[in-house]
Amino acid sequence: MKKQFQKLSKITILIIVIVFGMPISSSLHIDSIKTDNPITSDNTFYVGGSGSNNYTKIQEAINDSSDGDTVFVFDDSSPYFENIIINKSINLLGEKRHTTIIDGNQLGNVVEINSNYVNISKFTIRNCSSGYSAGIWGSTNYSTISNNNIISNNWSGLVIKNSHCNKIIGNIVDSNRWLGIYLGTCNYNIVSSNIITSNFNEGFFLYNSHDNTISRNFFSENENGIYITKFCSDNLISSNVLMFNEYGIHFIESYGNNSIKNNSIRWNRYGLCLEYSYSNLIVNNNFIRNVLNAHFDRYYLDENRTNYWNGNFWNRPRILPKIILGTLWTYGPFQWEFDLEIDRNPTFFPNRIGVRDG
Predict the structure, then answer these.
(1) CB–CB of 43/18 below 8 Å?
(2) How many Å separate Cα 188 from the centre of its chain?
(3) Residue of 15, 199, 221, 333 with fewest CB within 10 Å of its CB?
């Protein structure tokens, strides 16, 4: 279990983030991220603050808004004990992420998105109810959740289902009681430049989804840093830093051109685990000081279906090919036997992880 690793302080994690080149808020330039909302207006509804006509409840301002409007929330009346439903294409903006707090008071989802083209930024979102609730729950397309939201102390941090072409960028998803971010049956989404730490199970969970990009994130002290399961294909997992998780990256029954490239996978119990997953590309990653750097399992019916490994760094300089040991499950007398895949061109030096590129 992840608890077998010594708990890191938040200061230690911040130092590691800086040392390994992960972008943090000052270098993300999140405020300049372009939103995708084609519906715009000059109408802004203010919540809190000293204006005589300002609202006292966020939901009341949302109810009076129309597509394209902005609801701006001041922090002086924070925390706002509300469970918000967004059913319009609006921008919901907080004054400051640390001090503009929406608290669900453990009464359900804190923020629920039921519309397309929604943008949410600069809030702390906390205290949803237990069970299947989340800090942010949504079924939405072309929406952006960004600008350093702090999503913590929920059952799940962010749950998005049956949704496409969204951006989850530059958030801190920390200390949620079940998982950090979940995407289920979601395609063409971008999850980038987030800090995802200390979630009890998965930091990031992807289910039955294709053509998503998971890049430049920092994962630490989750049970699974990145968990990919059930028929996921054509996803890109690139330029992430994963450390001090039980599993850095964990695949189950996902096959077909998933690319795992240019990631720093270090100091996890299991660096990369591929269970019944094949035809994936694993290239130019750094596997450093994991208890077990990489392992795979496959069924005997899939024994001729392999993953492609190339150009990875394995703890130390290597010239000869690197053998990756796995397990082939059979119907023979012993039920299983050893299997192997090969990285034919391991690198002599660590690969450059491009978290600062672009």
Answers:
(1) no
(2) 14
(3) 333
